[in-house]
Amino acid sequence: MFQIERVEKILEYINRKKKANVKELSEQFEVSKVTIRRDLDELAEKGLVVKTHGGVMSIMNKFAYEIPIASKFEANSEAKKKIGALAASLIEEGDIVVFDAGSTTLEIAKSMKTQDITVLTNDIKISMEVAMKPNVKLMVSGGALSDSVYTLVGDQTVEFFKKVHVNKTFLGCDAIDLEFGISNRTREEVPAKKAMIDAAEEVIMVTDDSKHNTKVFCYLCEISRINKLITNRIDDRFRLELEKIGVEVLIAE
Question: For residue 35, what is the domain's CATH number?
């Protein structure tokens, strides 16, 4: 069996079973674990599966629940780094900014060079990253810690963001669809995200292209609520439709 044919059959198997581990796939397709890991890396890089500890799960099975943070970090990591670097370059001296929770917004914090700014977030990992930067004022929301993703959620989180006004909100994204709008996998994160949007003069969404033309469980807002989209690549039709709505598209290359 050729490699391209095997990878296609592996994807079909994962979509049918919803999830699979390396040992199982190695036995099923009669190839080494090393070969299976290489095939899974290829599928994950294309956004066709989500890597988990010891295996993968189908993207069809991530519709309505949060992906563990370790898997988020692995998915499209190079694209996220480039998106984060471009987003960080938009932060100006004296800005007050919100960083939504997520692996892509964490890359903004890592790339951030600007000093004398204020960062507000509900993400524990982002707060740890920002805390190490000199001359940056950090404010972390209250709230309950959401399992596996280091995100604070709940009434305290929402109230925190309802009572502030900021220059920019950098918003993460689980899915963006021209008809359905912007959506999120888990309902508990939606109220805080809406408060972050309402708090900002400018909303900048950061997401890799695997989230384009997709929709997941919980509706968040219309696409027109964001001002800019920073992504790694985008097809011409999708970009044109976003620009018609008034969303500026920036490509991190």
Answer: 1.10.10.10
